[in-house]
Amino acid sequence: MTNRIVIGLQWGDEGKGKIVDWLAANADIIVRFQGGQNAGHTIVSEGETYKLSLLPSGILHAGKVAVLGSGTVVDPKGLLGEIANVRNRGIRVDSSNLMVAENASLVLPLHKQLDVLREERSGGGSIGTTGKGIGPAYEDKIGRRAVRAGDLVDPQGLRPAVDRLVDHHNILRRGMGVEKLNAEDVVSELEMLTGELQPFVGQVWKFLRQAIHEGKSILFEGAQGTFLDIEHGTYPYVTSSATIAGGAVCGSGVGPLDIGSVLGVCKAYQTRVGNGPFPTEQCNAIGERLARKGREFGTVTGRLRRCGWFDAVMVRHACALSSVDCVAVTKLDVLDGFDELKICTHYTLGNRRLDYLPAQSRLQSIVEPQYLTLPGWKRPTAGIRRKADLPREARTYVDSIERLIETPVAALSTSPERNDTLSYADGPL
């Protein structure tokens, strides 16, 4: 297996965690390159369900090294809590199989407080964040005032970094009529965590460079999805980091020529959490049926996901942005039993035909999806592991997706279980 990036092609929740977990068996190192505890991966293996947010999915495999790259924002308490949870379930986590980039920025309680305050003050104009402090943490990173993981192992540098951060936040808090922060309290809280976190902090870029020289295989795991990307997503209803394949380079410290392939992951239908445009959303019995059958609740927030028909315009657009080699389609089994299924082939905007998602939020909200209608299938696909066992109509549906997104479908997932994943076509998998 070459060094591969795995990204989401929709608005997140595509099942990347399961696909990364499936691929991790053939990788040596699994790297999260962006996002934080706003991401959620649910993995089912041998009847056991694991819900991960910060830890890369590969942590569940013995003999692999999981890495949090510099592009992530790390909640120290959240990470330690997640480590404790998986340890309690018999999964080994120590400095030999987990590394945190010393230049990764930290998410602190002050970030979560600011996140919630802003959403509350926005009222009907809220973005719909998870409230995990991710946006404010990335703001401080870009504003060059973040506290970083490396500061925890440099006692002389920690206090100045905290002072700089707290000064800025106290200006914001004063404007919101909120009690000011005490820098000493922030430092004390971080110092209490330092002993547990210090063993994991290291030079990720150097570790990955050495691994590449040794011929080891690296899997780069993205969080969220393409259309939550800060540059290319449905702005401003986006996350604060680069979710497309290019983000793996910046967020890990490897060079572009070190990447061998890009795998995109999408659901067999479409979902979205929070606010923002959704051209193929079904605010009707179809949407409710998809949500119920797909158990569409956010792993992190528990919020009900909005559901709709598969949007080939968006997924084709996403494949182009990341030079996707092949695609894994998940949750095919959720479509079992529908009389008919629809795939959005293009949009209309007035008298114009669009084969891409416009950049402007207003236009994203008023484009009219145009559909290809296909027959559904009555025979269940849940648990199928061979292409030959799929109903003919299911193969037609997947073949139509492949044709419309102009990218090979290499794998299908037919249940949350790790091994209920089948190779669909000969390709780079």
Key structural traits:
20 strands; 429 residues; four-stranded mixed sheet; globular; 20% strand
What is the topology?
Blueprint: E1 4-8, H1 16-23, E2 29-32, E3 41-45, E4 48-52, E5 65-68, E6 73-74, H2 76-88, E7 98-101, E8 105-106, H3 109-122, H4 134-142, H5 155-175, H6 183-197, E9 201-202, H7 204-213, E10 218-221, H8 246-250, E11 261-267, E12 270-272, H9 285-293, E13 306-308, E14 310-311, H10 312-322, E15 326-330, E16 340-349, E17 352-354, H11 361-366, E18 368-375, H12 392-405, E19 409-413, E20 421-423
Parallel strand pairs: 1-10, 1-11, 2-5, 2-10, 5-7, 6-8, 7-9, 11-15, 14-16, 15-19
Antiparallel strand pairs: 3-4, 12-13, 16-17, 16-18, 19-20
Give the low-pLDDT segments.
Answer: none
Q: Would you tell me the structural class of the helices and strands?
A: alpha/beta
Strand fraction equals: 15-25%
Would you report the number of β strands?
Answer: 20
The shape, in one word, is: globular
Radius of gyration: 22 Å
Helix content percent band: 25-40%
Distance between the termini: 8 Å
**Count of DSSP H/I helices:** 12
- What is the averaged pLDDT score? 92
Main sheet overview: 10 strands, mixed
What topology, given as strand order, has the largest sheet? Answer: 9-7-5-2-10-1-11-15-19-20
Plain-language structure description:
With 429 residues, the chain is of the alpha/beta class. Helix content is 31%, strand content 20%. The protein is built from twelve helices and 20 strands. The strands form five sheets. A ten-stranded mixed beta sheet has the order 9-7-5-2-10-1-11-15-19-20, sandwiched between helices. Strand 19 (409-413) and strand 20 (421-423) form a beta hairpin.
